[in-house]
Design a protein that fits this description.
alpha+beta; Alpha-Beta Plaits; five-stranded mixed sheet; globular
Length: 92
């Protein structure tokens, strides 16, 4: 079953390669979607793909890359849209 997860990750998550590491992990899991930094200092992402892979990605977000310190992950499950061809890093 395909699903979509929308997350906002709070903590020391900018300037620690969180976006690049997220994109690498999403590609590894075969997910599509995007990741970006927010003006509030968080990282926001949308993951689409097979439910087990999305769940693994959400679990990974709770820890993040080695230099990150995640304090909160706010995740919302949404209906799969199929709107993405690949996973990308967005720059605002």
């Amino acid at each position: 079953m395909k699903t979509r997860g929308h997350v906002v990750i709070t903590g020391r998550v900018q300037g620690v390669f969180f976006r690049a590491s997220t994109a690498e992990k999403a590609d590894e899991l075969g997910l599509t979607g995007w990741v970006k930094n927010t003006a509030e200092g968080c990282v926001e992402a949308v993951f689409e793909g097979d439910e087990p892979a999305v769940n693994k990605m959400l679990a990974w977000c709770r820890k993040g890359p080695a230099l990150a310190h995640v304090t909160k992950v706010q995740a919302t499950m949404e209906p799969f849209s199929g709107e993405f061809e690949k996973f990308s890093i967005r720059f605002n």
